[in-house]
Specification:
Distance between the termini: 48 Å
Mean pLDDT: 84
Radius of gyration: 17 Å
Number of helices: 6
Number of strands: 0
Order of helices and strands: HHHHHH
Oligomer: single chain
């Protein structure tokens, strides 16, 4: 029950933050805080969402840099959670898949 509540809270914060980012409000980019917090809830409680965020971060570099900046500047606990979605594992898998096999390997 707790996990379902946290996932729901994560989705609500993510959607609210995304909507708030594009609306004209007096404080520019005020939606980044709820967006980051919502993503942190989703990354922490859903393996599927964590892998989806990894794929997005791998394809959209500016989004990855934005999250890394928020990881360094934001609260430490939130930074540790967002760091779990770093796309390094995808890069490592691509490097292994494109490696030329040596004579001993098949």
């Amino acid at each position: 029950m707790r996990r379902i509540l946290l996932l729901t809270l994560g989705w609500v914060l993510t959607i609210f933050g995304a909507v708030l980012c594009v609306t004209p409000v007096p404080i520019p980019m005020i939606g980044l805080l709820p967006l980051g917090a919502g993503l942190a809830f989703l990354i922490e409680n859903s393996r599927t969402m964590r892998r989806a965020i990894q794929r997005v971060r791998h394809r959209v570099r500016w989004f990855s840099f934005m999250l890394e900046h928020f990881t360094r500047r934001g609260p430490k606990a939130l930074g540790r959670i967002l760091h779990r979605s770093h796309p390094a594992s995808i890069v490592r898998k691509e490097r292994i898949d494109t490696r030329i096999p040596s004579e001993g390997e098949d």
